[in-house]
């Protein structure tokens, strides 16, 4: 029997990037996966179909409470009221601004997706996890959930706060047998990190090559593969991590060690 056979898994931000890889892996390991994203996750659904997996989707902007409520109704119908795993992966980078130049609406928008959106999605999906009598939530934070980074205060603070949300939810749900953990990845190979490197190079007055090298300068001297993040998320939502809750695991090639 496959590891996630007969399990209902919800992945936000599943149309692209790491979320796509996470969703595909759950489906490959037997789960029925509901893909939640701003846009129709056509490519992800095609990949899952080609892997003989099962998926469905709900279009939802997680910065909007009403859309989240409607998404949860749709998820309840698709999953017969029972969810085993929620992966809160959707996230927004924010722009590059020092705090002295920070625009309040930019700050608020980043927090509304990364922090408030994650809280609201959790709030709406938790009843389906409770119905199931056991389950797991995995929040995708970041290495900057544990350190500062100039020009990115909105993103950084949203990810630090996500770890507070993770620990609090872990305590609130412990008696329901729902475990809540987070991952803190370093820069992940893909389109998004290339855009970020370019954005930082521009504001910090460096070449893209210099900035790339600086970001790769961790003990392992490389970025993280999306599959390496996916593997840890599946571990945190499987019985292999049955005594772990409220944890924030670093996946940073040695950049962070506590
Ligand atoms: N890429 C990295 O280097 C890196 C490093 C550390 C942490 N992370 C975190 O990993 C997660 C995934 O990042 P990624 O690199 O795959 O990003 P990405 O930009 O490639 O993909 C993000 C997905 O989320 C969706 N999304 C964005 N805003 C949304 C919203 N308001 N409502 C619903 N869906 C929304 C997008 O449509 C997209 O499909 C994010 O939480 C990010 O902060 C990424």
From TrEMBL:
The protein's name in its UniProt record: 3-oxoacyl-[acyl-carrier-protein] reductase FabG
Keyword Oxidoreductase: yes
Coiled-coil region: none
UniProt GO molecular function: oxidoreductase activity, acting on the CH-OH group of donors, NAD or NADP as acceptor
Keyword field: Oxidoreductase
Pfam families named among the record's database cross-references: adh_short_C2
Family assignment from sequence similarity: Belongs to the short-chain dehydrogenases/reductases (SDR) family.
InterPro entries: NAD(P)-bd_dom_sf, Sc_DH/Rdtase_CS, SDR_fam
Signal peptide range: none
CDD domains: SDR_c
Lineage of source species: Bacteria, Pseudomonadati, Kiritimatiellota, Kiritimatiellia, Kiritimatiellales
